[in-house]
Design a protein that fits this description.
Strand order of the largest sheet: 7-10-11-5-4-3-12
Number of helices: 5
CATH topology of one domain: OB fold (Dihydrolipoamide Acetyltransferase, E2P)
CATH superfamily of one domain: RNA polymerase II/Efflux pump adaptor protein, barrel-sandwich hybrid domain
CATH class of one domain: Mainly Beta
CATH architecture of one domain: Beta Barrel
Largest sheet: 7 strands, antiparallel
Radius of gyration: 14 Å
Distance between the termini: 20 Å
Order of helices and strands: EEEEEHEEEEEHHEHEH
Number of strands: 12
Strand content: 35-45%
Shape: globular
Helix content: 10-25%
Length: 148
């Protein structure tokens, strides 16, 4: 598991570094999507998550959920287009799961992504994510998850 400035990034996931989103392939041809520990640390304690409803389509680069914390309200952007097939009701009712367990119980949605095999080549694998995240954190002036 990569650890960049105290932020954990599991090797088995794929990352959209620009949007601080992770993607995990599922056996049923859906993709689970969530916030990275970096996104959660930058936002602070998350108090509300409002995802798109199941059945809704999300265009590439658009919001799949609105995230609200004590210091920030903004979109979780889905880099790919896709159709929401499931919403994590646990994280909606207990938003702090996105802070405490972002790669487990704190996932946001599951989506069906057309042409996933082509799209996933645009993401960064967990084995290669340290360098891109170090550069992004430096550019953003983010000192790390332990300092947030």
């Amino acid at each position: 598991m990569a650890n960049v400035r105290g932020c954990e990034l599991p090797d088995e996931l794929l990352y959209d570094v620009d949007n601080n989103i992770w993607y995990r392939e599922n056996d049923d041809n859906t993709i689970t999507v969530g916030l990275t520990t970096i996104a959660a640390a930058m936002a602070g304690q998350i108090v509300a998550i409002t995802p798109k409803r199941a059945g809704r389509k999300v265009r590439a680069g658009r919001s799949c959920a609105i995230i609200e914390s004590g210091k920030w309200v903004g979109p979780a952007k889905l880099r790919s287009g896709g159709k929401v097939v499931e919403v994590n009701r646990s994280v909606v009712s207990t938003p702090k799961l996105a802070n405490s367990d972002p790669y487990g119980e704190g996932w946001l949605i599951k989506v069906a992504i057309p042409d996933w095999d082509s799209f996933k080549s645009e993401l960064t694998s967990g084995n290669e994510v340290s360098g891109p995240y170090e550069a992004k954190m430096e550019a953003d002036g983010f000192t790390g998850c332990n300092a947030a």
